Amino acid sequence: MKVLVINCGSSSIKYQLYDPDVEQVLAEGIVARIREEGSYLKHRARGQEFRKEVPIPSHREGFELIMQSLLDREHGVLHDISEISAVGHRTVHGGDTFIESTLITEEVIEKMEECIPLAPLHNPPNLLGIREARRILPDVPHVAVFDTAFHQTMPPKAYLYALPYKYYEAYKVRRYGFHGTSCRYVSQRAACILRTPLEKLKMIICHLGNGVTVAAVDSGKSIDTSMGLTPVEGLMMGTRSGDIDPGVIFFLHRQAGLSIDRIDNLLNRESGLLGVSGISNDMREIAEKAGCGDRRCQLAMEIFAYRAKKYIGAYAAALGGIDTLVFTAGIGENSHIIRRMICEGLEFLGIKLDENRNKEAIGIERIISTQESRVSVIVVPTNEEQMIALDTLIVAGLPVKGQLRAA
């Protein structure tokens, strides 16, 4: 029994093949630059990696290339495609229709299509991936795991905007949040690390990557989150602005003559760490330049940490206090500098960082708070694919065992 996990984008297909019986990833890879020059497949299995540059004119050819690689005598891990028992699909936006992972049917696909206006850049390729995977594997269950589903436990006071209510009724304009699969995984792992039932924890999760989410999680349920109707809202990110005065949009339109599409691109692709530093959206490069005295890079790091600190304070109030603070994703897992900058000044919440533990925790699970800290501060590397595989097994009615269940 094997589970194939698919994350299909507009020009790429990421994949992992899980074997729940031995609780490990057998193969993983990416088909990249679909319909572009220099398209390629990168595939890792049996401790070896190979890259194949080949024209990939469409997602259909991309999926066929993946199957060829999984079945390849030298690099593959399957003898026959029938060894795949289920397929899990990362799906970005389920609106308020999908509150949990769902077995894919034609009716479900129709409802997912209705959510396209909420995520016009992400849902169409997700649906394309579902259709192509079902074409290749028509006789196994396919499961959609929605990035927004975890946050559907938010109360109306947290997810509604202070706009005329008719826009929520007509167009579903509200906060949805993202990175829900990651937040669900790390919240469960944090409970395991602390050996405390998830239901007894008040937790703030800082998913800090190129995209950034801070989520308030009470007893394992999301009660608030920083991203909104779209991934632009919230904290400063790699290239996204995060929270701004909405009036800035109208000001730039009127004073700078920027079109709505131009402003949309500016807020999504030219702002954040890249916009402030003027150098990069990569925190590693920014930290290196900041260490050499680059003032704008220093400022980018300060803004990033300050905004995270404000959200932690706000969500501590919303939760009525916290006992767990979790850092995850690329920056959260690997930048001890950013973790330190965020935690500085939060001692009044009971947060005391152990600097040695913090410096040593690079991409590994580790408690980085002192023994005296009232709040447990933990680094938890995220694993959305494992969460998708777990959900796929459960929804498909297949057996779950060992560490995969505990994840």
Keywords for this structure?
Nucleotidyltransferase, domain 5, 16 helices, globular
What does this structure look like?
- With 407 residues, the chain is of the alpha/beta class.
- It has two domains: 145 residues, Nucleotidyltransferase, domain 5 (2-Layer Sandwich), CATH 3.30.420; 188 residues, Nucleotidyltransferase, domain 5 (2-Layer Sandwich).
- The strands form two sheets. An eight-stranded mixed β-sheet has the order 5-4-3-2-1-6-8-7, sandwiched between helices. A six-stranded mixed β-sheet has the order 11-10-9-12-14-13, with helices on both faces.
- Helix 1 crosses helix 3.
- It is globular.
- The two termini are 19 Å apart.
- The model has no long low-confidence stretch (mean pLDDT 92).
In short:
The chain is α/β, with parallel strands linked by helices and 407 residues long.
Strand content: 15-25%
Structural class: alpha/beta
Order of helices and strands: EEEEEHEEHHEHHHEEEHHHHHEHHHEEHH
Q: In the residues, how many domains can be counted? A: 2
Number of strands: 14
Mean pLDDT: 92
CATH class type of the largest domain: Alpha Beta
CATH superfamily of the largest domain: ATPase, nucleotide binding domain
- State the shape: globular
> Strand arrangement, largest sheet?
5-4-3-2-1-6-8-7
DSSP helix fraction: 25-40%
Number of helices: 16
Q: Tell me the distance between the termini.
A: 19 Å
The appropriate CATH architecture of the largest domain is 2-Layer Sandwich
Radius of gyration of CA atoms, rounded to a whole number:
21 Å
Largest sheet: number of strands, sense, barrel closure: 8 strands, mixed
